[in-house]
Amino acid sequence: MKKILIFILVVIILIFAYSEYKEYQRFHPKNANIIASNTIDLDYHNKETIFNYYRALENANNYMQMQWSVNGIDVRSPEDDNEETNLAVSKYGEKVAKLNYFKNILERSKKLKSEGYSNKDIKSFETQGLTTKAYTLKINKEKYKQMILEMMPEKALFSGERNQFVYEIQKLLVKKGYDIPIDGVYKNVTSDALMLFEEKNNLFTDGKIDLISLNLLLK
After folding, report:
1. Is 1.10.101.10 the CATH classification of the domain at 132-217?
2. What is the full DSSP assignment across 127-153?
């Protein structure tokens, strides 16, 4: 009988010890803490954002551990529904939300860099409040504008002249609503369309392309 009682006592102690061990492991930093993401950009253009991410991570983990060790509140999976618990859970949620805010910025930056964007690009379109699509379109438009400006001949176009510059001018005129052929040949139909465009925009009407008319065409 004595052996049976000792055995039962040992079993009870082991069950209690195992329960305590599981509880300890559950809230051990290695198992309980939010782990730093390995998908964030550690070379992000704004180093303060990286610092803020790690600070928010530390704040969230410290708060979670403190609530459990001091108040016995599991802010991740609360067992009670009292005011103190709800307040603690709410504050923890705010800290996690702040952490995720910085995490999303850094993860997005890393993803964009994998698509070919640089820190300069990311900083530029973030500052301008543009989406990546809008930023790419803006950059491509600027590159196209620069290309056309560099193609502009020093001398006035002559009738029958055929080149890439005329071809691009015709494309721009068509985009503005003028019904002309796009063949790269400078003929009366192109010159007449230019004159109509110049007249509409209160420019000197001569049917000849210059920097002023070209810049307006490129808008």
Report:
1. yes
2. HTT--HHHHHHHHHHHHHHHHHHHH--
